[in-house]
Amino acid sequence: MKSLDKETMKINEKIKELGLQALRVSVFNAPEEQRVEYQTRIEFDEANKKYQVYSLADRASIIGKIKEFSDFESAQDDFLKKLKLTVEYNKLRVSRNEPPEYPCPLWDNDREEWTKKL
């Protein structure tokens, strides 16, 4: 079984560096473990020796398709891109006075600023 300690540490450091710790993420947990709604996940499929990146929707169902990568760097880049897009998407929803996917300080502050303008 592949040890993912270094990769896990590297991704967690990047998440912290980018200020994205408040997002719902799962880093190298088993596919059925710790699933929550609107979560972005990166996993390693031991059988296929591929990294997998995907997002969950309501009721923890998969949004779109599972992307597979042979190398860690490409998987990490896609995972971090998805996290950034999650922030931008929810900020846009809040700016349109639509509910975000879930409460999070990364976009709830925008809601507070927006409602002060009313």
Description of the structure:
- This protein has 118 residues and is an alpha+beta fold.
- It has a domain at 5-83.
- It contains three helices and four strands.
- Strand 3 (50-56) and strand 4 form a beta hairpin.
- Helix 2 (72-95) packs parallel to helix 3.
- Residues 114-118 have low confidence and may be disordered.
Secondary structure layout plus pairing:
Elements: H1 5-17, E1 25-27, E2 40-45, E3 50-56, E4 62-69, H2 72-95, H3 105-116
Parallel strand pairs: 1-2
Antiparallel strand pairs: 2-3, 3-4
Helix pairs in contact: 2-3
* Low-confidence parts: 114-118
Count of helical stretches: 3
Tally the beta strands.
4
**How far apart, in Å, are the first and last alpha carbons?**
56 Å
Instruction: Give the spatial strand order of the biggest sheet.
Output: 1-2-3-4
Proportion of residues in helical segments: 40-55%
The major pleated sheet works out as: 4 strands, mixed
Over the alpha carbons, how many angstroms does the gyration radius reach? 15 Å
Mean pLDDT across residues: 89
Shape: globular
Listing every helix as H and every strand as E from the N terminus to the C terminus, the arrangement reads: HEEEEHH
Strand content: 15-25%
Structural class determined from secondary elements: alpha+beta
